[in-house]
Inverse folding.
């Protein structure tokens, strides 16, 4: 046997509540984060990811309370992202109960942060999140939740952060995100063969086949999804059954 | 009954503390030899490198007192807390471990298509029945994050094994001392059960 493929549900959190909305518009309240996380845990989630979608400085204490509430009840790996700018931000999140932090825009604005953070806390807890969009034959990296385009190429940038000490890459395809048309397997496969660290695929999950393909064709080590789990369109248990059918090893839910 | 969680700067002490509190036991963070004396059971969590683990323990006067406590109190070493039980690790050969096991900790072998660190959920095959793995189905998945492991060990001390390109000892055992390479505090139900059994274990 070897490592199992990981299924990671993601919670978007604002003001201490799970929220759902398309492109952050028409946001609706969708529950208490700790309760939702607990439900995913019981369904067999292999990790939990929480994204703080308006991680402003003023609301930091609400975020930390939410992290703590989840960590007090859920005993599987727990990643927190959103608004991380400096070493101290990481330190308080880890102390509040996060096992890993996910860093996106700040990694681009200040790549040394990755280096310092992985030295200080270990690579295993530093996830670098990348938002990328296909342009011609390559993929460009965007910052600030997909608002600003950079000159970076997604594959080169991934390798760079791996060298800087990132422990995992969380790749979100902006082309696929929200479309429910499947993950960007072309991008993911290219990344998987270029990287030595695990790859988490994100953006585009709509059907069971999409999750299977992300692992089989995209060669991702883990798949992240939000809305399909959130709206109970597909249960995590069902995903695992389908992966087993496709001879992909998963963690049994017992 | 009070469980002491040894704090020498490892970042995962709080998740261990949370899990123990969730299970209803009394846990205390231990930072010096006096506190170590007062507690009933010891958990040594760990993350980072073997050298810094040993040096931080020494810096806080905990190395020698820990060695002494190992002959008296139930001990659970997690991750580096397992590795420190060996005589030494390839990771930092100059720093001598607690030497409960004379063998050494080795680097996991790099192979094609195999990622190191070994990070994620993997199966634990228990080789022995013990109070601590009571009610935990064999081959349960536990969560791992590590690049070094015990590969060679006297069979009587091998509690469980796991495969990641090669077979390594994912849990070790010697009288009142248990070491696990996985993170029970992050391994869902089987992990919580393992910790609960450690809480209830009487020697």
């Amino acid at each position: 046997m070897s490592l199992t493929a990981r299924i990671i549900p993601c919670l978007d959190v604002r003001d201490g509540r799970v929220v759902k909305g398309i492109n952050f518009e028409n946001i609706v309240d969708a529950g208490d984060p700790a309760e939702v996380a607990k439900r995913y845990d019981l369904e067999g989630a292999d990790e939990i990811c929480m994204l703080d979608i308006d991680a402003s400085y003023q609301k930091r204490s609400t975020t930390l309370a939410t992290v703590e509430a989840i960590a007090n009840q859920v005993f599987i790996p727990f990643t927190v992202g959103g608004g991380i700018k400096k070493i101290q931000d990481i330190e308080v999140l880890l102390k509040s109960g996060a096992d890993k932090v996910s860093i996106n825009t700040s990694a681009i604005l200040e790549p040394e942060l990755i280096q310092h953070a992985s030295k200080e806390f270990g690579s295993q807890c530093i996830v670098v999140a990348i938002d990328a969009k296909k342009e011609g034959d390559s993929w460009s990296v965007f910052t600030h939740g997909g608002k600003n385009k950079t000159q970076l190429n997604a594959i080169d940038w991934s390798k760079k952060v791996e060298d800087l000490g990132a422990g995992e890459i969380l790749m979100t395809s902006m082309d696929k995100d929200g479309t429910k048309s499947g993950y960007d397997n072309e991008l993911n496969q290219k990344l998987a063969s270029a990287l030595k660290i695990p790859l988490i695929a994100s953006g585009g999950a709509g059907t069971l086949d999409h999750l299977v393909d992300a692992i089989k064709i995209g060669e991702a080590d883990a798949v992240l999804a939000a809305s399909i789990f959130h709206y109970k369109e597909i249960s995590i248990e069902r995903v695992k059954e389908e992966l087993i059918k496709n001879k992909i090893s998963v963690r049994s839910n017992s | 009954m009070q469980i002491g969680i040894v704090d020498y700067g490892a970042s995962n002490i709080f998740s261990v503390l949370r899990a123990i509190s969730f299970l209803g036991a009394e846990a205390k963070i231990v930072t010096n030899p006096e506190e170590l004396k007062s507690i009933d059971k010891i958990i040594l969590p760990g993350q980072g490198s073997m050298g810094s683990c040993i040096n931080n323990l020494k810096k806080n006067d905990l190395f020698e007192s820990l060695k002494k406590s190992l002959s008296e109190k139930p001990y659970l070493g997690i991750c580096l807390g397992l590795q420190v039980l060996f005589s030494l690790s390839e990771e930092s050969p100059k720093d001598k471990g607690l030497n409960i096991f004379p063998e050494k900790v080795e680097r996991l072998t790099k192979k094609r298509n195999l990622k190191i660190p070994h990070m994620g959920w993997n199966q634990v095959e228990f080789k022995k029945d013990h109070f601590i793995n009571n009610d935990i189905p064999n081959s349960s998945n536990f969560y791992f994050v590590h690049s070094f492991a015990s590969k060679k060990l006297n069979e009587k001390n091998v509690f469980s094994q796991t495969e990641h390109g090669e077979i390594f000892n994912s849990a070790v055992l010697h009288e009142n001392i248990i070491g696990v390479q996985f993170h029970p505090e992050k391994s869902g139900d089987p992990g919580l059960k393992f910790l609960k059994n450690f809480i209830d274990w009487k020697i």
